[in-house]
Design the sequence.
């Protein structure tokens, strides 16, 4: 099994950063790489609750839809959820931890694991990099 890890620092309080991962109206502003948009997002933010995110690629005029289930939620500290692309049987796991820094900034650690192939892991690393770049623009 393969996994990727990423870490970013944000110039925003941890509460605001955590909310950006939980509230559909904020998810729609950043949760797609590059110039892709998010026309639809839903999240039932409780353990066992589901989420669904539609990422639209205007270049290809296509949608990429991901969804899953929240496995662990510790407010302002940790989110763990499954990750499954619509139409793809592969289910992976995402864990995001949030750390408040002394100066009012926040640190985010993301681990996406349980990939069967390195190629899939690498593609998701590129995607997450683009998503986190958009989140950085939104938060800073």
Sequence:
């Amino acid at each position: 099994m393969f996994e990727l890890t990423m870490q970013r620092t944000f110039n925003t309080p941890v509460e605001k950063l955590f909310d950006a991962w939980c509230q559909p109206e904020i998810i729609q502003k950043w949760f797609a790489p590059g110039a892709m948009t998010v026309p639809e997002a839903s999240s039932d933010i409780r353990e066992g609750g589901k989420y669904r995110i539609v990422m639209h690629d205007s270049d290809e005029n296509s949608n990429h839809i991901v969804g899953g289930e929240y496995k662990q939620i510790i407010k302002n500290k940790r989110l763990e959820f499954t990750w499954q692309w619509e139409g793809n049987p592969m289910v992976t796991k995402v864990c995001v931890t949030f750390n408040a820094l002394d100066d009012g900034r926040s640190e985010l650690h993301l681990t996406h694991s349980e990939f069967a192939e390195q190629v899939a892991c690498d593609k998701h690393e590129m995607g997450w990099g683009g998503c986190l770049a958009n989140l950085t623009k939104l938060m800073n």
Q: What stands out?
A: The chain has a mean pLDDT of 96. The chain has one domain: 2-139. DSSP finds three helices and seven strands in the chain.
